[in-house]
Amino acid sequence: MSQHPIRRSQRLNQITHAPHEQLDKAVKANAPFDTLASYCRFLSAQYLFQQELKALYTDPQLIALIADLPERCRADQASADLNDLDTPIPAPVAGAVDHPPLAEALGWLFVSEGSKLGAAFLIKRAVALNLSETFGARHLGELVGGRAEGWKRFIRILDDLPFSDEQEQQIDKGAVAAFERFNVLLEHAYTSAAEAEPA
């Protein structure tokens, strides 16, 4: 019996396993749901990440592949969450993704879209801080049609795209870089907040 070839999305899950674990540990170490102040730092990192990816979510070439891409972007929700909690909009951090090739951009989107599945658990933790999908935790909310269905639609498109070997390498690079970037932004959000606190 011949083995089915591994799907692109499965390979991306495998190659991002280590940076994904590293990010999970970093998030847990910062305990974003223990206090509202800690959550606001986590939210700042989320905002920065989504703001950096906004150009990808509104890119005409990518929208041609994924029609509902603009509606999937969470930058505006994260911005509204910061406003809800009277938290200033953080300044951009050097090193944002900038006009990557199409396949690499899809690697970044794979990570951003995949994080919405984890958000289902995070929103439950946010409720303990009196936050919800309409106040302070909008960016963790569920899309119209449901999380699982939105993810399945995205993966179906991603897995069916005809890629060259070079593009396969680019999408891998984008997915790993996305996890590494969120790690950088998370560290920045917590470090800059700690530095701003009075001694």
Write the layout of secondary structure elements.
Elements: H1 8-15, H2 17-30, H3 36-57, H4 60-65, H5 69-72, H6 75-84, H7 102-127, H8 147-160, H9 165-196
Shape: globular
The assigned CATH architecture is Up-down Bundle
Q: Number of helical runs? A: 9
Q: What is the CATH superfamily classification?
A: Heme oxygenase-like
Could you explain the architecture of this structure?
The chain is mainly alpha-helical and 199 residues long. It has a single domain (32-191), classed as Heme Oxygenase, Chain A (Up-down Bundle), CATH 1.20.910. It contains 9 helices and no strands. Helix 3 runs antiparallel to helix 7.
